[in-house]
Specification:
78% helix
Length: 139
């Protein structure tokens, strides 16, 4: 084996290592970006609850809503925002680690199970939401 072959092999090994390192960095960046966008929507929802504390029981205490309720429009618009948040989690799952993805899936199922306004909104507008979200809910 001549020295040119040795150098070429060494360069190839170093190049392969550099590519692996770059792929790892891209994966970390993607996960960070995914978490950031999810947390941004969460902050928006929390701010809505802070600005409208009368809505909280409809989302966290299993309080049912009817059309005659004076909070109906606010609750259902907030439910729409909440569903967009859940869908963001569901459709961005590949950008989360498997451990985090499992926790978020449990969160989605829990919210669906315990929030009548969200359940009603999703059922009434089933076709508006992704197969990924429905797969998690129905799992």
């Amino acid at each position: 084996m001549d020295w040119v072959s040795v150098v070429q092999t060494a360069v190839a090994v170093v190049g392969f290592g550099a590519v692996l390192y770059q792929l790892n960095q891209v994966e970390k960046s993607l996960r960070s970006s995914t978490r950031s966008s999810i947390y941004s929507l969460a902050a928006s929802l929390k701010q809505t609850m802070i600005n409208n504390p009368e809505l909280r029981p409809y989302f966290y205490d299993e309080k049912k809503i009817s059309e005659g309720d004076p909070n109906f429009d606010k609750v259902m618009l907030t439910a729409d925002l909440f569903c967009l948040y859940l869908e963001k989690i569901a459709t961005q799952g590949e950008g989360l680690s498997s451990i985090n993805n499992k926790a978020w899936c449990n969160y989605i199922k829990g919210v669906y199970k315990t929030c009548p306004a969200i359940r009603s909104h999703l059922i009434d507008r089933e076709s508006w939401y992704s197969d990924e979200l429905w797969a998690i809910i129905n799992k």
